[in-house]
C-alpha cells in the first residue's frame, strides 16, 4: 500500500502542477522548492569539479578552468534566456488550451536550440582561443584553457537541449523532472570525475 501510494505521488510529480487548481501557495511551494534544490545541485556540480581538479591535476588546470568560466557563462546565459522565454510562451499557451500554438512554440524552441548549438560546436575551435587572448588569459594556461573550452563546446548542444527541455517542462508545470535529471547528471559528473581524472592525471604526469 505504501509503495503504491509512493509511486502514485511520484507519477503526480512528473505529471506537473496545474496552477489553476488548488491552493495557490501550495502550488507555488511545490513548484519553487525543486528550483531551489536544483540550484544546490548546480553549485555542487561546479564545486566538485574544482575540488577534484585542484587535488589530482594541479593549480594550472584549476586556473585554466577558471579562466574559461566567463566565456562559458555567457553561453549558459544565452541558453537559459531562450529556455526562460520558451517557458513563458509554453505556460501561456498551455494555460489557454491553445494546443496548436503550444506545439509550434515547442518545435520552434527546439529548432532554434539545435541551430545555435550546432553553430557553436562548429565555430567553437576557431573563436575560443582568440576570446581567451582577448580576456588576457596568462600564457602558461592558455593552451589548457583553449583545450578545455573546445571540449565544452563539443557538448554545448546537450546543454542547450537540457535547458530548453527544462524550460518547456516548467512551462507545463513540471519542476520535478528537470530536478531529477539534474540530480542524476550531478552525481554522474562527480563519479566520472573521480573515475577518469586521477587516471588521466597520472598517465599524463600531472602534479597530484
What are the main properties of this structure?
globular; 208 residues; 7 helices
Topology readout:
Elements: H1 2-14, H2 24-56, H3 59-95, H4 99-134, H5 139-154, H6 156-171, H7 176-203
Offer a concise description of the structure.
This protein is mostly helical and 208 residues long. The chain has helices at residues 2-14, 24-56, 59-95, 99-134, 139-154, 156-171, 176-203.
Word description of this protein:
This protein is mainly α and 208 residues long. It has one domain (25-203). It is 86% helix and 0% strand. It is built from seven helices and no strands. α3 runs parallel beside α6 (156-171).
Separation of termini?
A: 52 Å
What's the pLDDT, averaged over the residues? 79
pLDDT < 50 runs, ≥5 residues: none
Provide the β-strand percentage band. Answer: under 5%
The level of helicity is over 70%
Shape: globular
Major beta sheet summary: none
Instruction: Note the run of SSEs as H and E.
Output: HHHHHHH
- What structural class do you assign from the helix and strand content? mainly alpha
Number of strands: 0
Estimate nothing, just give the exact number of structural domains.
Answer: 1
Discrete helix count: 7
Q: Radius of gyration, rounded?
A: 20 Å
Amino acid at each position: 500500500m505504501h509503495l503504491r501510494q509512493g509511486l502514485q505521488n511520484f507519477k503526480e510529480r512528473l505529471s506537473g502542477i496545474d496552477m489553476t487548481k488548488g491552493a495557490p501557495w501550495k502550488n507555488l511551494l511545490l513548484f519553487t522548492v525543486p528550483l531551489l534544490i536544483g540550484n544546490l545541485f548546480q553549485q555542487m556540480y561546479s564545486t566538485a569539479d574544482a575540488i577534484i581538479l585542484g587535488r589530482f591535476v594541479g593549480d594550472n588546470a584549476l586556473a585554466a578552468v577558471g579562466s574559461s568560466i566567463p566565456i562559458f557563462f555567457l553561453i549558459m546565459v544565452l541558453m537559459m534566456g531562450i529556455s526562460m522565454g520558451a517557458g513563458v510562451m509554453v505556460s501561456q499557451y498551455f494555460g489557454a488550451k491553445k494546443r496548436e500554438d503550444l506545439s509550434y512554440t515547442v518545435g520552434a524552441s527546439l529548432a532554434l536550440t539545435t541551430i545555435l548549438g550546432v553553430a557553436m560546436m562548429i565555430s567553437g575551435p576557431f573563436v575560443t582561443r582568440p576570446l581567451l587572448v582577448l580576456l588576457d588569459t596568462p600564457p602558461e594556461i592558455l593552451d589548457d584553457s583553449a583545450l578545455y573550452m573546445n571540449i565544452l563546446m563539443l557538448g554545448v548542444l546537450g546543454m542547450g537541449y537540457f535547458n530548453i527541455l527544462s524550460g518547456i517542462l516548467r512551462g507545463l508545470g513540471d519542476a520535478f523532472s528537470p530536478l531529477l535529471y539534474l540530480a542524476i547528471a550531478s552525481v554522474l559528473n562527480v563519479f566520472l570525475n573521480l573515475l577518469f581524472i586521477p587516471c588521466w592525471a597520472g598517465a599524463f604526469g600531472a602534479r597530484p
